[in-house]
Amino acid sequence: MARVITITSGKGGVGKTTTTANLGTALAMQGAKVAVIDADIGLRNLDVVMGLENRIVYDLVDVVEGRARLRQALIKDKRLPELCLMPAAQTRDKDAVSPAQMRELTNQLRQEFDYVLIDSPAGIEGGFRNAIAGADEVVIVTTPEVSAVRDADRIVGLVEAAEKGPPFLIVNRIKPRLVNRGEMLSVDDVLELLAISLIGIVPDDETIVTSTNRGEAVVYDQSSLAGRAFLNIARRLAGESVPFMAITDQQSVFERLFGMFARRRS
Amino acid sequence: MSDLISIKGGREGLRLRLDDVVDWQVLTDALAQQLAQKSGFFVGARLMLEIGDRTLNDAQMADLLGLMQQHGVLVESLGATARESRDAARASGLAARPLPRYAEPTAPASASEHDGMLVTRTVRSGQVLRHHGNITLIGDVNPGAELIAGGSVVVWGRLRGLVHAGALGNADAVVCALELRPTQLRIAEQITRAPDGAGRLSPETARIEGGRIVVEPWEGSKRG
Fold it and tell me: Which of A133, B168, B174, B205 could cross-link A102 (Cys pair, CB 3.0–4.6 Å)?
């Protein structure tokens, strides 16, 4: 039975698209058949992050309005044949699609895939409503910033009101050094407020920037901390029990010794 | 609230019941006064309006809705025994439903501030709990959430949103919480905000004393 999972956040720029691309890739690497849908109509990104922009012929709105069949709009990934992208339309806006049409679309995709991941636009308006309309489960991405967490809280309320069950939480871009110094919200601080179940912690990692710009998922690079974290999240989504990585400060022994001295002197 | 107007919270939301005997002008004047006086309670409220046996024409209906809108109240539906009133409501785009006759023809059913509402969940950013009586919440009130009560508010959890107790004017109302760190705390007409920095991590009570809001630790033994 296929699972339709929407990735959303409320606030923009916290990593929804990166998360969708990487979870889709990771699930497909594990052998699942995966479709990722870009529901951010008018501001599409997922195709760029996955490096598939130049292959788009038809998009989601073409399918919904009957100009293309589902198969025609689905773009196969460069590396993984089991991974497909349904791109958003760039020349239309959120009103081009209704929640009922999104439900219909996801129900068609259910027939052929194990996972359907939906990349939601930021905000709480029509685009967000479309993105969760067909979902069985919702994953909320937040960063450890007060504003992002506040928006995530609003989204949790809306997801609960839409009776999608309790959402899962990914805390993205944790900077261990700042947390240790008490200058950044910790995962515990975030969880204390949101009170939903945690499914992943992704450390802040520069390899995300380079891999995103290259149009390649970071999960291929298992030397990358973020890549490992996304792979772990995919395994947890699939039902495996994977312990959370210890997000520790990655400073050298020398720095650590120096830090001890500094502390003792103060 | 007054003899002519009563507000009551229920499972389906707030109901505002208007007397159906007194002269229409007297009633709307009283309503305008109540809405203005108790704006802390009414601004942003969504409610069901009940007019009983009264027959309203289209102009009166428009006046009534205009008055509510002017005071920031969104009327979701109208309950009336008279078909003409329901037709007038539908003509202005409202849902309308038939209503049984008021039990006491002169005074609307009285709603007391001692009535209570018990809620067990987290109230999240953007969500509002509004009740004419006391609110008891088992759970947290997150920043960006609002609790608005005619009576007192008791939170068995962390109170970090906005809270307004005694919002219908009762200055004896209190607010207590296991962790009282509201972004803003209002009792009746008084407004205060939590001091900057970390608050106490023990139960506290806020009340009005000498015209201003004071917050003190809850110490059960001393009150004995």
Answer: A133
